[in-house]
Design goal:
77 residues; mainly alpha; 0% strand; elongated
């Protein structure tokens, strides 16, 4: 769930930054500093990669915790 929330928040912030960069202009010259593009395929592939890495990193600890006896886990803390 945290990986999903982080991925959605990251995509939202990325789109906001891209829109902000597109809106920035140099007032005296009248040209834009950087013309960022929001390619949906690139953004979704990056989000999928980040989500896959997050899920892979969480898999081993979650599997170990699922196999542990709850009473033993509570006794250790």
């Amino acid at each position: 769930m945290l990986v999903g929330v982080g991925t959605v928040a990251g995509l939202t912030l990325t789109l906001l930054v891209i829109l902000a960069l597109r809106a920035v202009t140099v007032p005296t010259l009248g040209i834009s500093l950087y013309r960022a593009t929001a390619d949906p395929l690139v953004l979704l592939s990056i989000a999928a990669f980040i989500a896959a890495v997050g899920l892979a990193a969480a898999f081993a600890p979650a599997r170990r915790a699922a196999r542990m006896n709850p009473l033993t886990a509570l006794r250790r803390d």
